[in-house]
Amino acid sequence: MTEWFSIVPAFLAASAVILIPGLLIGVALRLRGLWLWAAAGPIAVSVIAMSSVILSLIGVRWGALSVLAVSLVFAVLIGMLVRFVFKQPVMRIADYVPAGAPLGLSRGAKISLVGTLVLVSVIMVGRIGRAIGAPDNISQTFDNIFHLNAVQFVLDQGDASPLKIGLMNSPMGNLGFYPSGWHAVVSLVVDLSGASVPVATNAATLAVAAFIWGAGIVLLTRTLLGRGIAVALSAAVLSAAFPAFPMLMIAYGVLYPMFLGFSLIPAALAVVVGLIGFERIPTTLALPTRWLLLAGLVPGLAITHPGALMALLACTVPFVLVWSFNAIRDRRRDGRPRWPVVTASLAYLVGGFAMFLIVRPPREQAFWQSEVSPMRAVLQFVTSELMRGETPYVVGALVLVGVVVAIVRHDRVSIAMLGAYGLALILYVVAAGIPHWGLRFWITGIWYQNIPRIESITVLATLPLAVLGLSTIIRAVAKLAGDRRVIAGGLTLGIAFGVLAATQLDPAIQKATDYIRENFAYAEDSDLISSDELALLQRLPEQVPEDATIAGNGWTGAGMAYAFADRWVTMPHVMIDFTENTLLVNQELRDAEPGSELCQAIADENIEFVLDFGEREVHDKVHEMPGLEDLEDSSAVQLIDHEGEAKLYRVVGCD
User: Fold this and answer.
1) pTM above the 0.85 mark?
2) What is the rounded distance in angstroms from the CA atom of residue 312 to the CA atom of residue 338?
C-alpha cells in the first residue's frame, strides 16, 4: 500500500484541476455550501472544455496557466453579470421554506454534511484505488491505446481542442470532432505534477470519482429528497455500491470519456430539478442564475462525450413532463394562461427529439447486439443484476424499497423519480433484450446500443431511489428512539455503516473490483502491455532520441511507446488513417535496401527504430504486417535492446 504515496502529488494536482476553476466561478455565481462544492467539478470540466476550444482558436498554448487565465476571465465576467444584472444575492436557503424550519444549517448539520462529503471521497478513492491495484497500472484494453496516447498528443501539440485531437489518428483531418474533455483534464494533471501519463490518468480517475461523482450524488439526492443526515449518509454509502457505475466504465473499454461525462450528470440534473421548482429545500438562486449555471455545464458534457449530454436529456424527460402536467393543471385551476407552459414544453420536446435524432454515431459503429430475452432483461433490471452476472442483493433490495416508498408518496418528485426508473428500464430492456436491430438503434443508438453504457446510465435513475429507500429505513428506525438523540444518532450511524459494509463486501461489487484489477495488472500475458514490454518501454528514453519515430504494430501495444516514453510512433492507435509511407513500411521494412522507395519513405517519416512486441494482439486480433515481422532474420535492422520477447531494433538497412 505504501506505493500509493507516490500518487499523492498527481492526486493533489488532479483535485486542483477539477476544483479550482469551478470554485472560482461558483463563488462568482454566488453559490455556497454543498452547491458550491458539488458544482465546482462539473463547472471546472466545462471551463476546461471551453478553454480547449478558445485557446486553440486564438493560438495560445495549452497548459495549466492558460486555463487558469481563462477561468479568471470567466469568473470576473460571470461575477459582474450575476451581481449587477441578475441582482443575485449570496445563495442561502429560501425564505419560503416550511414554517418553523431554520434558515441555513445548524453547526452540527454543517459538520455532519462535511463529514459525509469526506466519507464519500474516502469510499470512492478506496474502492477504485483497490481495483486499479497500483498507481502506474493501466487498463489493458483496446480503447486505452487512444486515451493514453491522446493525452501525450495534447501535451506535445499544446492543443486540447476536440477539433484537433483527432489529428493524432488522422493527419488529414478525417476524424473531425472527437470529445477531448477527459484528455484535456489529464494533460493538465501531467502539466501540474510532472507525473507520467498512466499515473496522471489514475489520479484523475480517483479525483473525478471522489469529488465529482460522489459530491454530485449527495447534491442530487438532497435536492430531490431534502435535508437530513439520513439522506446525506445514504448517498455517501451508496455512491460506490453499484457495480454498473462508476466501476463499469473503468473496467469496460476503457471508457474514460463516458466515465467523466456520466459523473457530471448528477450536479447538472440537480440544477434542472431546481429550475422546474422540484427542490425539496428551495434556495435563493435566481432563475437567470440557474439558467446560466445549466448553460455553463452543457459544454463540459458535450465536449467530454455527447452521449453524456444525451443521457442528461433522457434523465430530465420525466421531470419536465411531470412539471408540465402540474403547471398546466394549476394554471387551468387559477385561470392563468397555459400557453407559456405549453410553448416551453413543446420547445423542449421538439428540441430534445431533434438532438435525439442528430447526436448519434454512424450505424457501423453501433454494432453491439442484444444478449438475453426481453423478460430476462426485465428481471435483471428489477433485481439490479444487469449483465454482470451477480445480483447486488442489498442494493437491489434498497432500490425496490425506494420504488415502494415513491409509489406511496406519489408526489410530483416521487412520480418523476419513478418515471426516470421506468425510462431506464425501457433503455436497458431495448439494449439487452430486443433482437430487432433497427428498433434498438433508433432508441439506444446514441449510446452505440451498447449494454454496458446503458447499464451505467440506469444508475442515474436507480441510485436516488436506493437512497430514498435507505434513508426511509434509517428514519423509521431512528424514530423509535423518540427524543433520545444519542440513541437515534447511534442507530443512524449503525444502519448506514452496516449497509456500507454489506455493499462493499457484496459479491457483485467484489466481482467488479476483481475485473478491473485483472484488466489493469501487468503480467507476462497481459492483453496490451506485458511486464517485459513495460520494462523495455521504461528504457526507451535512454535508447531512442526525442526526435526519432518508432515503427511497430499498434495492435500489439508497440504504439504505447508514445504515452510511456514520449517518442512518436507510426501507429498511435489501431484505428488510424495510414499514409502511403507507413503502409509501405508495414509491408516491406524488413527488406529495406539503400536507395529504394522504401528507404525514402523511412526517411520521410523519420523512422529510426522498430518495436517488436511479438504476435499477441489486443482483443485476440490478427493483423499481418510482413515488414515488421520476423525481424531477427532481417539485415535491415539491428537488435539494440530486449526484455524477454519484447525487442527494440535500430533501422540500418538504409545506411
Assistant:
1) yes
2) 27
